[in-house]
Design goal:
The chain has 123 residues and is an all-alpha fold. It has a domain of 81 residues. Helix content is 56%, strand content 0%. The chain is built from 7 helices and no strands. The protein is globular. The relative contact order is 0.22.
Length: 123
């Protein structure tokens, strides 16, 4: 029986894993910060993707260095925008606001994000 797995470019997989680790490094620590953010509206997929590619979040994490394609960042932005995170939590991420204090609901929503985001970078 042939148990061979599909061939995956190790550099692409490493980049994908680095991207997820970087993003979760910002998302998950939200639960340890102070302050509050209350935007009037939920950030759009476009705003979130921009932050991941060229905005404050990209600068803070050096995400451009991952070499991930724009489609990966767009997918991650779609997962984040469609998540149960509050508008304030998403805005804090877009702004790379390390003073944001998440609600209990935000903390619960964070538990689902790693597996959802991982689908964006799966080879």
């Amino acid at each position: 029986m042939d148990n061979a797995r599909p061939t995956t470019d190790p550099r692409r997989l490493s980049t994908a894993l680095l991207l997820v680790a970087c993003l979760l490094g910002v998302v998950l620590p939200l639960s340890a910060c102070g302050g509050n953010s209350s935007p009037d509206t939920r950030p759009s997929v476009h705003e979130i993707a921009d932050s991941l590619t060229t905005g404050p979040l990209a600068e803070q994490l050096g995400l451009a260095a991952t070499g991930a394609p724009t489609s990966t960042f767009t997918c991650i932005a779609q997962k984040l925008e469609g998540s149960e995170l509050s508008d304030g939590a998403l805005q804090a991420m877009v702004d790379a606001d390390d003073s944001f204090q998440p609600s209990d609901a935000d903390q619960k929503a964070l538990t689902d994000l790693p597996s959802q985001i991982a689908t964006c970078v799966s080879p």
